[in-house]
Design brief:
Distance between the termini: 62 Å
Strand content: 35-45%
Number of strands: 9
Radius of gyration: 22 Å
Shape: globular
Number of helices: 3
Helix content: 25-40%
Order of helices and strands: HHEEEEEEEEEH
Strand order of the largest sheet: 1-2-3-4-5-8-9
Length: 169
């Protein structure tokens, strides 16, 4: 019994200390958090045949209890692959991530068996405005940096329209 009584004051002392302050999440931490906490239902809709890509394309919609949470668009290109991921809460864009991967050179040609990450960019949105951003690497396909947030929002709205028009059962 003596051990039990000695542990009570220690437990009280540990519980009475304030919790450490948490630092704001980085853009990459936001995406990791959103990807790991949620279990989604996935629906793959056919890509518009009018849009051509060398290696094919696919759009996957992720929903939770009928509410759209994420859209992932992958496009195969002659030089590699580009993956755009839109994180949302229903019809509101929360974040955007773009990954550009390329085939490495192998002599005079490309090695189509491997992909090497060339660029990753992340945008965090609040009220349709970019509030945080981070990037690493060099873009193979670049966007207008002055209108980047607006371009991403327009693309997101087009994908939303496609989702609502062809909503899976």
């Amino acid at each position: 019994m003596k051990i039990f009584y000695c542990l009570i004051p220690l437990a009280f002392a540990a519980c009475s200390q304030p919790a450490p302050k948490q630092l704001p999440l980085t853009p990459a931490d936001h995406l990791t958090y959103w990807d790991t906490i949620t279990r989604y239902r996935t629906d793959t809709l056919p890509q518009d045949e009018e849009v051509a890509s060398d290696g094919g394309s696919e759009i996957v919609f992720y929903s939770l209890n009928g509410k759209l949470m994420k859209i992932k668009e992958e496009n195969g290109l002659s030089w590699g692959k580009m993956t755009s991921t839109y994180y949302c809460s229903g019809d509101t864009l929360m974040a955007f991530s773009e990954l550009q991967e390329r085939f490495p050179s192998k002599g005079d040609s490309l090695d189509f068996t491997k992909l090497v990450r060339n660029y990753k960019g992340i945008l965090i949105f609040q009220a349709d405005t970019v509030s945080q951003h981070a990037s690493e690497g060099e873009e193979l396909i670049s966007r207008d940096p002055g209108a980047l947030g607006e371009q991403i929002l327009e693309e997101f709205k087009d994908l939303l329209e496609s989702f609502h028009a062809k909503k899976p059962s």
